[in-house]
Automatic annotation (TrEMBL):
Organism: Thecamonas trahens ATCC 50062
Main location: nucleus
The Transcription initiation factor IIA gamma subunit C-terminal domain, residue ranges: 66-102
Subcellular location: Nucleus
Gene3D superfamilies in the record: Transcription factor IIA (TFIIA), beta-barrel domain, Transcription factor IIA gamma subunit, alpha-helical domain
Keywords: Nucleus, Transcription, Transcription regulation
Family of the protein in this entry: Belongs to the TFIIA subunit 2 family.
Keyword Transcription: yes
Protein name, as recorded: Transcription initiation factor IIA subunit 2
A Gene Ontology biological process term: transcription initiation at RNA polymerase II promoter
Function field: TFIIA is a component of the transcription machinery of RNA polymerase II and plays an important role in transcriptional activation.
Length: 119
């Protein structure tokens, strides 16, 4: 499962990385083992969220909404947004950044890209 370090930069990921870096600096573990630990964290975090999270949320945004897609990562900048969850009170937010990864990989493959260039 390739996760492209989605959770590496989360608060939990940063704490784990700081701890692992400290262990490498103290020569408790090797840098190779540190990389294995961080990769395992990515895979376990992705699997846990995929299997455990069942909540849904919707949001409505207004203002000068900016979005972009780079290598399957969608980034949305929402100046004014309202989040809604079923059975809960709506929450307003300002200057919210949402990053989402296209896990389905709807990008054209290299062979398809080449065939398009030939036409």
């Amino acid at each position: 499962m390739e996760t492209k370090q989605l959770y590496y930069y989360s608060t939990l990921g940063q704490c784990l990385r700081d701890t692992v870096d400290g262990m490498v600096a103290s020569q408790i573990i090797s840098s190779k083992l540190a990389n294995i630990v961080m990769n395992k964290f990515e895979n376990v975090a992705a699997k846990a969220l995929e299997e455990s999270v069942t909540a849904t949320m919707s949001f409505t945004a207004s203002g000068n909404i900016i979005y972009r897609n780079c290598d399957g990562f969608w980034t949305f900048f929402l100046p004014e947004v309202q989040f809604k969850m079923p059975g809960a009170e709506a929450v307003d937010g300002r200057n919210v950044k949402i990053v989402a990864y296209d896990i389905k990989g709807n990008k054209p493959s290299a062979s398809k890209a080449r065939s398009r260039k030939r036409k």
